[in-house]
Amino acid sequence: MTAATERPALPHWETKPKDVAAATRQIKAALREQITASGRSVDEVFAALEARIAAKVEAIKADKAAGQEVWPVIDFADIAAGTVPAELVAKVKERGCAVIRGTFPHEQALQWDQDIVDYVDRNGFFEMYTGPADDFFATVDSKPEIYPIYWSAPQMEARQSPRMAAVQSFLNSQWTHTSEGVQWFDPDRDSLYPDRIRRRPPGTDSAGLGTHLDTGSIDLFLTEGYQQAFRHVFDGTVEAYDPWDAAHRTTAVNYPASTMCSAFRTFQGWTALSDMGHDQGVLHTVPIPEAMAYLLMRPLLDDVPEDELCGVEWNRTFPIGWKWHGMLMEAVSGIPDVQAGDTVWWHCDMIHSVAPVADQVGWGNVMYIPAAPWCERNERYAVGVREAFETGSSPADFPEEHYERDWEGRFQPEQLNSIGRRGMGIAD
Q1: Are 344 and 230 in contact (CB under 8 A)?
Q2: What is the pLDDT of residues 136-154, one digit of tens each?
Q3: CA dist., res. 342 & res. 101, Å (int)
Q4: What is the pTM of this model?
């Protein structure tokens, strides 16, 4: 095929186009032309990709049939000692997800859970709570299930913990973070990306969250950075696509939207604050990191209308379902039972959902804490994080609720340790 440097540049839109349907038609035509220039048709390339993904789907189904855990489970002690078995590392790369047992001591996590209760009660949260300000999480039906709380002592203590830093470094190191003469991110320094908490009480009926992707939406097809990040998907060399290659991802842009994450995350994650059974409305994923290539190529097939991207729209999470992605849906797999103090992690491109539950047994409480390694993109976001932290405000990626501005017991700047300061871009 023509060398990459000789290929005509794809059309791209660094801000959301006014006419999304027209841009969709244009980019699909250009992508088909570029793939065809490789000497293979779109159908041929997709068939090769589909066969690769199908083999992974069948392996997952075989593990389930044999009663084996689909998710890799790693002991924190092995991460701390640098003794994670090679076969488990390989399984993390294969499945794109992991449960880290004992990231925090069980009793500490339970105490954090109680401390959060005390924090919101002391500050009259339920008296001032006005309901979900986020259309996405408004569907879960709990009252509330997602607490728009960011700056409690437990959340900040977990974010700046050396134990959390060790886990994040391990996960970040699974990526190729230096290539083309560029260090795309620092695997051993994470930004303190603030997110919310979930508290779901016993007896809860929750609708869960549908199967989706959080990396982006139409911007994955239309912006230059993502076109470069997914170059092998779009140029006919899909066999060379590596979901662990960070090249260009940290420079890519997402169109501003209520569902956008301004930071680059290698893994999404949460920390369990209660013991949870695998059948109690927990996280499910399609544990195939390469599935992103399938999602990006699927709209190029002839059965998809020319002005559509298989239901992908701006300001909505990337939807996955049986209509366009039936083979992938066959691989949906839930986490195993977890204990308070365990952490759960999934690759940033991972298709995921939260299962519904009726009359939940026990609490279902988590703190959302990702792996978001230090890079230019995350450094820029850290400026706003610092301002929100200092004032007790809601961070920029989240609805402007600002419940904590005057709260007693909010974590203070003088309580930051060296990990916390580095994660916010504050020089020691």
Answers
A1: no
A2: 444 444 458 899 999 999 9
A3: 5
A4: 0.95
